[in-house]
Design a protein that fits this description.
The protein is of the alpha+beta class. Helices cover about 25% and strands about 35% of the residues. It has helices at about 5-10, 15-25, 30-50, 55-70, 110, 265-275, 300-310, and strands at about 80, 90, 95-100, 105, 115-120, 125-130, 135-140, 140-145, 155-165, 175-180, 180-185, 190-195, 200-210, 210-215, 225, 230-235, 235-240, 255-260, 275-280, 290-295, 315-320, 325.
Length: about 325
């Protein structure tokens, strides 16, 4: 076992060492699988099974590590499933850390009733694979709630923020994505969901397959989307249109594209992607629209320099308050 992983779970690494480990995990598939395996076991013993006795939980975790070192050939001890922790909130610490779901030989009753929450703070992204093989990408300041194991006649998850789904096909179990007021039902497809509460609308964009979008809690068939269509739900109404910009979905790779988009909307996204508060004193800037792309690894200064080529404005930073003010 990589000793740094052990120290990571017991908070024995410095912030620099933690970041270094996470970067190594992101770059190495073997280390990534090992990290997820021990992450899963640690969460189960300390959160799911040993909530009242963390000392015993650590002893059990140490015993597990010794077993793994002695019996490395027994690789079937773990199989893939969603993170089986009581209510495990995963905070993403690197720019993009892929979490692989792992499954342990615990009772079906335990894993079937476990609900997990994956949250990505502002400025971060995440990717994970659910127990059924469905791939999910989560954008900045977003939350995904999902079961450790899908049981029953449907596979249901909840989203707040933005997420891209590549759903594993299973005709016997439809996949349902719920937001605060909209449900999306699919069998196997690729689609994007935009549902930030502060946006005031929910938008579902279909790239492949089919999705039926309906209002939550209402008996209606809703709207069946075809590939390259998107539906925007706002104020109790649905509007279907053709997807204007396929590049929008490149956010999964840290690329953000916009076409004739109002500056105010672009700045709202920049607040999410760069974890900063942007204040606009020059209200005439609200009228400007922009077309272009920027990468998350580009600095905020680089993005503003590009925008200033179209319309001149001044940028003032307040590092202590984490704000940026745009002026004439």
């Amino acid at each position: 076992m990589n000793e740094r992983i052990y120290k990571y779970f017991y908070e024995e690494l410095s912030p620099e060492e933690r970041l270094s480990l996470l970067h190594d995990v992101e770059a190495c598939e073997d280390l990534k699988r090992q990290f997820a395996e021990y992450q899963n076991q640690y969460a189960l013993l300390n959160l799911g099974l040993q909530m009242q006795n963390k000392i015993m939980g650590r002893q059990k975790f140490d015993q597990f590590i010794l077993q793994k070192q002695r019996y490395k050939v027994r690789k079937q001890w773990f199989r893939r499933i969603g993170y089986a922790a009581a209510v495990l909130v995963l905070i993403i610490s690197s720019s993009l850390l892929t979490y692989w779901s792992m499954r342990s030989e615990l009772s079906d009753d335990l894993s079937a009733n476990v609900m997990n929450t994956l949250y990505t703070p502002a400025g971060q992204r995440a990717q994970l694979v659910l127990q059924d093989g469905t791939e999910v990408w989560l954008n900045a300041k977003s939350k995904l709630t999902y079961p450790a194991r899908f049981t029953g006649e449907k596979r249901q998850v909840e989203v707040e923020g933005e997420a891209f789904f590549k759903v594993a096909k299973d005709p016997s179990k439809p996949f349902i994505v719920s937001t605060h007021d909209v449900n999306m039902k699919v069998l196997g497809t690729q689609f994007n969901v935009y549902s930030y509460p502060e946006a005031g609308y929910v938008q579902t964009s279909l790239l492949e397959g089919s999705v039926r979008v309906s209002f939550s809690g209402k008996d209606s068939e809703g709207i069946l989307l075809k590939p390259d269509q998107q539906v925007t739900v706002s104020n109790g109404k649905m509007k279907v249109e053709k997807i204007r910009l396929q590049d929008h979905f490149l956010w999964r790779d840290g690329i953000y594209a916009f076409e004739n988009e109002p500056l105010i909307d672009i700045l709202k996204k920049m607040e999410l992607y760069y974890d900063v508060k942007i204040i606009i004193e020059d209200t005439s800037l609200f009228k400007e629209t922009y077309t272009g792309k920027f990468r998350q690894r580009d600095s905020l200064d680089d993005v503003f320099r590009v925008l200033q080529q179209i319309r001149k404005f001044k940028v003032e930073k307040d590092i202590e308050r984490n704000t940026v003010t745009l002026k004439k």
